[in-house]
Batch of 3 targets.
Target 1
Amino acid sequence: MRLPLCRTLALMAVCVLTGAASADVMVSQSNSPSLALGAEFRSLLGAEHSTVNALQENELAALAKGEAAEVAAHPATKAPPYSDDWLASQPAPKGDAQWECLRSALYFEARGETIKGQFAVAEVILNRRDAVGFPKTICSVVRQDGAGTCAFSFTCDGVSDQMRDQTAIDRAGKIARVMLDGAPRPLTAGATFFHSQDVNPKWHNLTKTVSIGAHLFYRITL
């Protein structure tokens, strides 16, 4: 929205018109700066009028409260609803190799989890990418191995990694897209590790942050 710009131009127009009225020298109308500014001012007012008329009631209310600029600048300030209906309403996703790696990890590691559980696993992967001591790309995080173990078991369990469940594929792809587009990560409190509740790994220097579905989540103890 350009309402602040219009107010500034309005003040400029008043100043120019006032100055022209008191000047001793006549200015040709065809080259008058006040007329040019007036035309621009009318054009901006027309554009603003059309834009305001197109807004919904809730958007007008947000604009009146000064919230519109903040929402536009930070489109992903709120966590998603984590519901099937909301996820189904999201557009068909697409992305690059990093999106594909995140989608695959969600499919093979968490497709049996709730929507919230799958978002939580996505948080761990992105938290790892951003943390010190981990690889700096999603694909490298997902494929990381060392000391004979894999960070994500599906990458080295000897089972074909072909995705067959179209519903689960679509869900994982949408979750990956939402997270890569900047959704916040409030579910796991910065966790960089998780495991299924039916196993008991000997992890040291880790603090449990939350239990979601069949998974327990941990972060490194500071």
Target 2
Amino acid sequence: MKRLIWAGAGVAALAIAGLVLWPGMSERAYSQEAAPRPGGVPVKIAAATITPTPVQINTIGTVQAIATVAVKSRVDAVIDQVLVKDGQFVKAGDVLFQLDSRTAQAAVNQAAAALARDQATHANAKRNVGRDQTLLNKDFVSHQQFDTDSATQQALTGTVQMDMAQLDNAKTLLSYYTIVAPLDGRVGLISLKRGNSIKANDVPLATINQIQPIYASFALPQVDLPDLRAAMKEGPVTVRVLPQGDRGQAIEGTVAFFENAIDTTSGTISIRGTFANDEQRLWPGEFLTVSVTVRDDPNALVVPSAAVQQGQAGTYVFVIKDDSTAEIRPVTIDRTVAGRVVISKGLSAGEKVAVDGQLRLNNGTRVQIVTTDKKPGDAS
């Protein structure tokens, strides 16, 4: 029994000793794991370079149709034919709806008949005046008869002109029974079908949006307006947009105009860009990412965006000095273009910055440069 007690005590002592020794062993192992390699912390670097870079303004916008028309009837009638389908693309002049026009056609026929009657009467009156003129020279007709026949001819001339106007009006009313597309565009939902009675200027039969060309509407801060105006004086200003969810290339257009006043509430100005939209990738109501190129900066100092870090005091980069040590350098960012950051202050051309491995760096940390296949200035 005593031997068992001593054996248990020995095992407990060894366990306690293990608990005492293990934290120390763990601490040494951790310190060895966290220690830099003998040659320094491995990093990838890129050089800050002077590269011609466009000055771009990036924002969010929406697509707007250049024209939207609500197609309505101008007369009271019954829909006889629907010659368009939901979502169909139509050209200006295409027939959309045919209304029951029998009454209007009868009015045209009646006006045409009245015109023909009065034209015949007018022609006879004109002949009478001609005969009276010949007989008057021979004193076979009195002046009173000649004056009466001349007045009758002039009255019938006015009657014929009135008949022609009434016929034109009847034909115009008849044309209202054939509803055509006023512009090129895409038709929305057809709200009324064949057989429905409609009233003049009542509910729209359909809506047409002109989508070729099309607008992109967006707002820019007022501080960017001088650059935009200066660019527009030099020529067309390029606008690139990309709809949300579209994985294709950016769509190019030009600035059409900017609003004549700045919104005092937001301090922005509304801009519209025009796009041909040949592939119909832009759809009214879509949200867009917008990039406006106002000019080119030939002497922009750029580094890969991976080099720039964000700290509590602002943005900074790790500059790799000639003695293979790292230095924290605060920098001022002007803009970001296509994965490259334009530095306006804090860095010089030719200085090397870390683009990978910065998490293990600090001021004075020795580094080991890892070569890459990427060119200086490209993002890692």
Target 3
Amino acid sequence: MTTMMPITTARYRRGEMHAFQAADSTFMYLVSAGAVFALDDAATNVLARLDEREMPHTELVSALVEGGYAEADAEELIRELRLVQGIVSDRVGRAPAPTAPPADFPLQALVLNITNQCNLACTYCYEFGADKIATPAGKPKYMTIETAKISVDFLLEQSKERKAVHITFFGGETLMNFKLLKEVVLYARGAAAAKGKTIGFSLTTNATLLTDEIIAFLSDNEIGVTVSMDGPPELQDKHRVYKNGKGSYAVIEPRLRKLIANHKTRAITARVTLTEGVTDVVRIYRHLKDEIGFHEVGFAPVTSAEKRAYSLDEGGMDSVLAQFHELADEWLDYALRGQMHGFTNVSETIGELLQGVNKSHPCGAGLGLLGVGPSGDLSPCHRFTDADTHTLGHISTGIDQDKREDFLSRGHVEAKYDCQSCWARPLCAGGCHHEAFVRYGDTGHANLHYCDWIREWTDTCLKIYGALSALNPEFLERFAERKALS
């Protein structure tokens, strides 16, 4: 029988954390807990000493007392820091890894690729990228209503005890199969109600096919809309073109104005793909937010295919990051005044910090979310649709649990050696599975080309979070409530 040593004989070292300054205060982001703590000068100084060496319990208490703590308060602080592994004893190893969800983790969402056809020919589209070829022989280009209904029933069944589920319609160009979309919404609402569940809907579109009828349907049915758009005319038309090379801006601009004016039930979001020559982030944001009227604007830099002419190089990424900082400062200014800003890249990270996320995987792909191709093939997410090497089953026969387990085990953050020394891994978990496959040939590979960028951006968002927690905590409370309802 092993006898435990009394806590007063323990020796402490600093746990895994990232220090940052905000609002004239010192904060610590604790990797083990995915949480942010504000520290006073005495606690900061003690933790700084632990950077250099281990300290016995009694010495640690004495140091805090010298810094102005009562002994009882010093003991309490040590207890709290031990609890969240801000400090760890010589008897404790590395913080436990995030637990992998169980094999029967219930579904929450499906992405229905209701067509893989598109009326545009965007030069950076991943639809027929490195992991797939154009519509494999024998597979349909459009989803049928039978496949769609089976998909809805599958989601409701596999969601188990979840009371709310979600369907995202995707393409190709989603609205090329709008007739099916309408039927699916009506069917899914009735099927969900019969099982005592609620169901929500969203879609992604290039906006070229929007009509008054479609806009009215989207608004009446509270369907969220994300528009793929890259900015003002010369930037939009650089890559987002028709098959004859003609740009798409002039076609979609009046349709977007109608959508934003008449869709009253959900926010309308723009998603910008940043590529070589399309990196003027601030200008793009101003155009889409202030001139067109989008409620929110998010940006996704293309870095996955380094040999592609449109991919951003290191200089392009540096320019993007500098402009992200400019919009982040603006986001904070708005928040300090109690106002919402539309820069999605900040909002998403602040939302995760408020939830205290500590990810086992980069996203819900293969977990609470699956993609469904027009043929009914299941995939980890919409990016892998019709990629035969990544099929996880079929909607009529169910999930291939062996393939799903293999995908998830390789994608777990603990399986990525390069992530183990990175303080940002609770929020990143190694990055996008699809991007890893395209860049490195392995869905479980860490996106190493993106690491420094992610760390700097995460540090920026932490500083925003710290400043708000010190100067306007009420905004964070309202923001968390808003996120919970969205």
